[in-house]
Amino acid sequence: MTFELLLVLAAGLFSTGLYGALSQQSIVMIMMGIELMIGGVIVAAADFWSFLSPAAPGGQVIVVAAVLAMAVEMAMGFAVTTAIYRARRVDMTDMAEDLKG
Q: I want to staple 10 with a disulfide (CB 3.0 to 4.6 A). Which of 3, 44, 68, 79 is the partner?
């Protein structure tokens, strides 16, 4: 794939994730949108790395670290969401506002 096509893919992933995160009320769907946005950023970062300096291994390390951080962040987010759902049966963002007190 060429540089431009991968950037279009990254922009599409980010845009789809942004729409999903802003248009949904379910906590899980919002988290899926955020994961798509992070995936788009990772694709763009990998594309820029391969375009600017394909021989340097530093870009690969950063991309792998970003994917690892995304996986850990999503696992923690789903764990918290599952705990909230089990404790109070809350699965929508409007209902989660009541958890302050």
A: 44
Residue with tokens 């942004």: 18
User: Contact 39/9 with Cβ under 8 angstroms?
Assistant: no
**Per-residue pLDDT tens digits for 3-56:** 899 999 999 999 999 999 999 888 888 889 999 999 999 999 989 988 888 888
Q: Over the stretch 82-101, which tens digit does the pLDDT of each residue have?
A: 888 888 787 676 666 666 65
Residue 20 C-alpha from the chain's centroid: 11
